[in-house]
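Journal club side-thread
Mid-discussion, someone asked how the predicted structure for our own chain would compare to the paper's figures. Pasting it here so we can look after the session.
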Amino acid sequence: MVVGGTIWETDDAPDVGVLLNAQHKRGAVVAGICGGTLALGRAGLLNGVSHTSNDPDFLGRNADGYAGSARYQESAAAVSDGGVITAPGTAPVSFTAAVFDAVGIEQAAVQQFKTMMAAEHL
């Protein structure tokens, strides 16, 4: 899971692409929210799956190697496809629920979490 932060928009952002690709290749789910989607974009993990981020141009402006604009979905909630979960920074509830679901937490508990939190962070 790659959490957001402004560092991902800078030259000082860590290069975690090898780690992310290795984990995804072995079957792990990888996830990024807000600026964390840039790490997934730089790693090429968004090029072949449906995904979202902060806005349609955010990845193109800030993630060298990103070539997935055709699969970008404008979404206020998390998007999950092919073992990759993405979300805009305004969607921590749906992002967390998607991660919970992906790791096999009982569906009733995931639904209870979503109901308890009710609204995204706006």
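Post-session note: The chain has five helices and three strands.
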